[in-house]
User: Fold this.
Amino acid sequence: MKRKSEQGKGTEASKVGRITAFLRKDDAKITKGSWEEVTTGQGQQVLAYAPYGFKPSSPAVTFNVDGTLVSIKSGKKLPTGPGDWAWISPAIPAKLRQLHSDGVTLVALVDEVSNLAKGKVKTDEVKERLEVVMAAVKVPVMILVAVSVGCQKPAPCLWEYLETCFPEGASVDRAKCVYIGNEAGRPAGWKAGAKKDSSCVDRKFALNAGVGFHTPEEYFLQQPIAPFDLGFDPASLLKLPDTALPEPERGSHPEMIVLVGPPAAGKSTVAQRHFAEKHGYVRVNRDELKSESKCLKKCEESLAAGECVVIDNTNPTKVARHAFLALALAANVPVRCIILETPLEICFHLNMVRERTGGVKHIPAVAYNIYRSKYEEPDSSEGFSEIVKVPFSPSFDVVEKKTLLEHT
Assistant:
């Protein structure tokens, strides 16, 4: 783990001065601690705050903050400042203090990846407000904030980092630990007047981390367990049968393969492992070549040299496919189309897996919406000699990726 302290004498004094404006004098003492900017073993960034002398031990009770412990007092979507909050119930700080008295470690696990990336909040604003809220608990609370793509919930990045904070040799029994969150997949009306949860990300985070899960109503207010819908379960992908990919039809002449499918559908895996590595095809990929003109040039040169070519792009429209088909026609080379029928919900999940294992840039949801709106089903009138539809089938090159695929 790489750590970079964010504490400075002048700035720290100024910061504490701002924070104490929202706290009683005794509460302000709890704010004395330090922030560190941490790079995890998988390259994600986490902001970590611990009160001086804080030593985590098992069991641990972990929790989200907004919507779980506190509400935004102003009623706005985002807080207006460090003091813009109120306890959802007075039972919450009382319960947290009792847990501390019982020897339980308290840790706030907060995901600010999206808000920071979109410029909706600033890092210093996040830190100051969290310190204010946690200081009001009046007992030591560690704070971990996910700030980089790949660490956002439901990926268990924050829990994985938390375990590295325990003393060397300490046993952490996740089965005895819990996570409390408000995004639990509950439907509208799960209680009188309640709105539908906007997601199930907190419940899935707990599942992926292997810890118990409770909503704040269940944990702090002893309300009965509400109905919920977990949604897409990626573990079901492991039960899918293997799919046989089309074999080359080279003969004595080259051919072209045009892949069609949304981002993270598995196109590059098929192109690289099956066609390039196994059968010697030249792989043409716009992400690597950076422009359509370079893709077309590489394709044309490869066909002229008698090479087989696989076009590893999304290719959603007839226009996008036509330029490559025209090159094949000019070279008198047959073209087959392979459509990867990976459902979009699986693509979203595979995108997360790629981010956490290969440093692949995050693909926003809008990219999938654009693909879906532009998509034109390939047909033989475009010049394809064959069109093959291939269902999704999981494939792993390392155990870690298999584990991540199982994450919800």
